[in-house]
Design brief:
It is built from 23 helices and 33 strands. By secondary structure, the chain is an alpha+beta fold.
Amino acid sequence: MSVISRCVLVFGVLGALAEGAPAKTDRLILPPTPTEAPEVASTACGDLIVSKEQGQTLFWASDVFECLSNVPFIPDVASRFINYYNETLQFHSTLAFLRDPPEGYQQPPVDVVFEFGLLQRNIAAGIYTTQYAFEADLQLLINRIHDSHVYLSAGLLAPFTFISPFYLVSASRAGQEAPGVYFREDVIAGQLEGWEPSPITKINDVDVVEYLTSFAEINSEGYLEPHADWNALFEHPALDIQSSQSVLHSAIFYPGDAVNYTQANGTTTYSYWLASYSEAQHTGPLTTAGDFFNYFVLGLLPDSWNASNPQWWPDWEGESDDSEDDGEDGPTPADVICTAGNPRQVSWCKDSQGAYPNNPDYVQEDLNRLKGGVVSGYFLDNTTGVLSIPSFLQQGIDTKNFFRVIDEFLGDATEMNISRIVIDLQQNHGGLNLLALSVFKRFFYDQEPWTGSRIRTHELANTLGEAYSSWWDGLETGNEGALDEDGNYHYFSSSEWVVGNRINPATGKNYSSWHEYNGPISDRGDTFSNLQLYNLSDQVFDTAGFQGWVPFGYGISTPEKAPPTWAPESIVLLTDGLCNSACAYFVELMAHQAGVKTVVVGGRPSTGPMQTASGSRGARLYSSEALDYDFINVNNTLEDHETFAKLPSRDNNDLFINFAGFNIRDQIREADKDAIPVQFKYDAADCRLYYTLANIYNLTQLWRDVAAAVWDDPSLCVEDSTGYAVRKASAPSKTPPERTVQAPTLNLDHITFSDLTVNTTGSPSLYDVKTKDSISTTDLKQCFHRASDCAGTSLKCRDFDVDCTGQQTTWRTMSACLPDTTNYGAGCGDGLWFIETNDAESKKNVPKKTLGGKKVNYETVTVVEGYCAPVYVDVRKYKLGCPIS
């Protein structure tokens, strides 16, 4: 068998054999008391940068934290950022509902405005003495909002994540038994070789459920209930194929140094937490913690930084691989599984550790972890088909290929009289609403998708809305913008502040003015606009709002022959509760509007219901950068200098931001007289299943289990998980479960004071003249000569697709100066997404750590390199021109 070696202590060999597991002779037998970890050198920050430049991709968490916890803190910088960010979040749509959530909301309430005031008071009172302590408190507040549209990648913490040394999964031994926690490698090997793995019962001598529940509460990635927080901790095949990370492999907060895992069979495994450092650009020599503040917090380059990147670090003269030969040269479980039978040349099988079938019936072009394809399709038998959509994020020609493979699958399913379709949305973290709308219309062509949404109204929002809407309405455009030489009519037609082309559902006509749209509607001590609907028949709005595309069924995307409408009872949506943003909108359309059933898998080891989509259900992700752009364009594009003078400055912020997101519009259901945002509706699945040892890494088995529970045997559903679902035409028979979780807290007492004056080298002033490069879709620089056009920056000339005609027919490759990053890296800027290029080569491994004279092991972590590229570029607006090849 192929098992990655772990450092273990065996207390009961007979217990292991009694459970059917083979003796683990390949593991190290150690004395019961681990020795102390080596003391970290005081040059931790400088050592980290040197090691990264020498090719190291992973670090011991304690080494990284030694550096981070000594990075100094400047109160004025933090205070200005809090003012800026607080002003930004005034545009977040659900502040009142977070403070006073309705019945059924599963997370603790949070008064965001009060908490920002508390942060400011803590700054003024000198509570924070290090940058880490301040940013940790800030990130915890963001996590407490439990909305993945509210996301901050900025400052010191952005390029660092903490990583579990082993991959874990949560699964039930049988369908109705409460799930346990297991090492993933044991589950995969056990299923292949016919033995049952032993569950983990304790982590760091704490009950495993208690430990992981606390870990999930603090590191929550924006989910609406604890069941989803639990699922997000663990590994999953759909994560593997997207080069994405579980929460245990991407934690924000330092989890400690040593970690041990105790299994039911008496085996204890010892290791240490790892960390990633993912700043892809060359930073220049950052020697001290003060230098880290300059670079990561302020975005300032050291005096010695050189754009030509001459080598300033010493060559690595050690071995490129410090791992020990475990004597296992045979095939991996994935090798065995993925070569069995009649495998297709292209599949997700190997990338998923053998979980996806090796013989898909349909694959999207460029289906590859390092390319753009994501969709695959399968016919399990002559009645059941599976359409796997792990992401709605596509760019350029991949979008066209996405639609093509779905059309092929549905066309053949119709011809074959397939009567059951499982749409697998596990680990689908969203993407483009265009794809959600267009896939919905392929199943229910005769239905008009509901797009009702609203904003939070306040003085700044109304100032922007009045200015933009009146300006846009007055543009001289001719027929569909024929006179729009500057591209403003098209580009701003989907602006948040233009309502002249949005439909008022109360009248069925376009809004005549911002004043008509503004309302205001009062609720919970706050004010909101009236609802707006998209006019999907307006191609000018469509192409501006949907990345140059028109949704299926409208305008140029109207098919010659309407596709058949599927019966709702023939379809089931499968999720793991992590469905987010565009995925959550797809669930809303399919389940609530069309009446399709849903099944959710996993969750905490307890009975009861679980929600289908616990990611953000907001209507529109927005960013601080987009808001900055809206403010400045009042002056530069609208030339409304009088209104611009009334707006506060958005320049008074020193902290370097990669991305700061928020939700600008609520999604509101049709005919909901209470107008409760969908974000705060308890929206349970029709049925909940547990992952099992047999199906967690065998998706064919999981899909069969789902089909059986929906169409053959409802008793397979987890106890008391049915009867909670809401549909457009029916109410649930049971009330939502009560909220039980409390707001999490962080203990930062172990962080000591850091003196800025002894932690800064190089420049005599923090405010150096050279700054890090930052780009967005509004300031792209096209490049034609790869060797020279991006010279003098840390950016590289990179390629991406553009649609030159606006008809989705003529795709060309454009090149622009773009930043590198990794799959563990800081977030890309507004309107940008991560394009993978290759798995990073680790030329230098983490220094050895030992226990009892034996080397401590950990599972290999794959770091994927790539770059941030635009999802869509309006070539007309930005005069970039279309390339000729």
